[in-house]
């Protein structure tokens, strides 16, 4: 049997006071794909969470589709806007969930990635957010940073997994 | 198989050159509970959707529903009695595309087979697709095809098995 995969590379749990960003660096090139699992909440009234790769916010673009419980909207942008998280105005103790899938992260081709997120809330409005992202760079991804539109709240968690195709 | 030995790579295919129009995973065993297929890549021209068939069945036994965002708008559509399932939202084109396909309970011969897909076309937009294959046979082959163009060199297709125990 081939080796089981989906190996935990690193994790980060936000402590008291929160942090504005979380960085995974020195990512080994020994996997095929990367998966990031997020449970997080922003400390102010913003859903925003961005990504950059290798310390650069350049050459990022996206197409998105989101729904708020009553309507769906699509949009696009030239930035690293990647997932939506629960915000300070949402139900207390409710953290948004997200998964970011980055295939072939060491390839010399441009890097496409897929992200799904929810910002749940016990109210009439909660969001689902789908992202088709592209980093137009031939560089292998060796690090990335997720940064909040404000701060990630205490107890937010970020797990980075590597997946092998052989 | 040991407990917890999940997300196991079964096979991967990397496209070489620019003449390939079909990728098939065959001889899939019943050793797993669910299957996951990851497609990452592009096509030489932006023409048609990638399409999926199981067990070489080209009959009108497939149906699927899509929800799509294309930057300036969004829609949902439904196709029934189709000869395949579209697994991309628009043609990948040259810019790059990621699709993540989940086929749960693929070996259960008591049920028709359903699938869940998240597709991210960085040129067109993101989408989610659900699909049905009206057949109770265990899935032993998965074919993913493109018409009117070819896969770009370097595109990858990987099949994983998920075991419940």
Tell me the number of helical segments of chain B per DSSP (H or I, 4 or more residues long).
0
Chain-averaged pLDDT of chain B: 91
List the uncertain runs of chain B: none
- The separation of the N and C termini of chain A measures 10 Å
Please count the helical segments of chain A: 0
Shape of chain B: globular
Radius of gyration of chain A, rounded?
16 Å
Q: What is the CATH domain class of chain B?
A: Mainly Beta
List keywords for this structure.
heterodimer; A: 166 residues; mainly beta; Jelly Rolls; four-stranded antiparallel beta sheet; B: 165 residues; eight-stranded antiparallel beta sheet; globular
Task: Explain the overall architecture.
The complex is a heterodimer of chains A (166) and B (165). Chain A is built from no helices and twelve strands. Chain A is mainly β and 166 residues long. Chain A has a single domain (5-164), classed as Jelly Rolls, CATH 2.60.120. In chain A, strand 9 (111-119) and strand 10 (127-135) form a beta hairpin. The mean pLDDT of chain A is 94. Chain B is mainly beta and 165 residues long. Chain B has strands spanning 8-14, 22-25, 34-41, 51-54, 62-69, 74-82, 85-86, 97-104, 113-121, 125-133, 142-145, 156-162. In chain B, a hairpin with a 3-residue loop joins strand 9 and strand 10 (125-133). Chain B has a single domain (7-162), classed as Jelly Rolls, CATH 2.60.120. Helix content of chain B is 0%, strand content 48%. The interface between A and B is large, with 40 and 41 residues.
How do the helices and strands line up, and which of them pair or pack?
The complex is a heterodimer of chains A (166) and B (165).
Chain A: E1 7-13, E2 19-24, E3 33-40, E4 48-53, E5 60-67, E6 72-77, E7 81-84, E8 96-102, E9 111-119, E10 127-135, E11 144-152, E12 157-163
Antiparallel strand pairs in A: 1-12, 2-11, 3-8, 3-12, 4-7, 4-11, 5-6, 5-10, 8-9, 9-10
Chain B: E1 8-14, E2 22-25, E3 34-41, E4 51-54, E5 62-69, E6 74-82, E7 85-86, E8 97-104, E9 113-121, E10 125-133, E11 142-145, E12 156-162
Antiparallel strand pairs in B: 1-12, 2-11, 3-8, 3-12, 4-7, 4-11, 5-6, 5-10, 8-9, 9-10
């Amino acid at each position: 049997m081939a080796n089981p995969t989906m190996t935990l590379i690193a994790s980060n749990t936000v402590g008291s006071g929160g942090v504005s960003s979380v960085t995974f660096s020195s990512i080994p090139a020994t996997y095929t794909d990367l998966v990031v699992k997020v449970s997080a909440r922003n400390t102010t009234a913003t859903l925003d969470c961005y990504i950059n790769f290798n310390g650069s916010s350049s050459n990022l673009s996206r197409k998105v589709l989101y729904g708020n419980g009553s309507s769906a909207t699509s949009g696009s942008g030239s930035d690293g806007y990647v997932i939506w998280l629960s915000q300070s105005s949402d139900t207390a103790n409710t953290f948004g969930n997200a998964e970011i899938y980055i295939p072939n992260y060491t390839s010399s081709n441009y890097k496409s990635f897929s992200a799904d997120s929810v910002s749940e809330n016990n109210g009439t409005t909660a969001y689902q957010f789908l992202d088709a992202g592209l980093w137009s760079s031939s560089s292998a991804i060796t690090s990335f940073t997720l940064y909040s539109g404000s701060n990630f709240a205490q107890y937010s968690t970020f797990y980075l997994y590597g997946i092998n195709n052989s | 198989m040991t407990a917890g030995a999940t997300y196991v790579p079964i096979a991967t295919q990397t496209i070489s050159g620019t003449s390939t129009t079909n990728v098939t995973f065959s001889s899939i065993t019943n050793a797993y509970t669910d299957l996951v297929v990851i497609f990452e890549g592009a096509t030489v021209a932006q023409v048609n959707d990638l399409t999926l068939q199981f067990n070489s069945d080209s009959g009108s036994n497939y149906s699927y529903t899509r929800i799509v965002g294309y930057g300036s708008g969004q829609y949902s559509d439904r196709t029934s009695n189709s000869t395949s399932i579209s697994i991309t939202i628009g043609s990948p084109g040259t810019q790059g595309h990621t699709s993540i396909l989940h086929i749960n309970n693929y070996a259960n011969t008591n049920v028709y087979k359903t699938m869940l897909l998240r597709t991210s076309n960085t040129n067109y937009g993101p989408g989610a697709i659900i699909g049905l294959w009206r057949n109770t046979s265990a899935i032993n082959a998965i074919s993913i095809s493109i018409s009117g163009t070819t896969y770009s060199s370097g595109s990858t297709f990987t099949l994983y098995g998920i075991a419940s125990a």
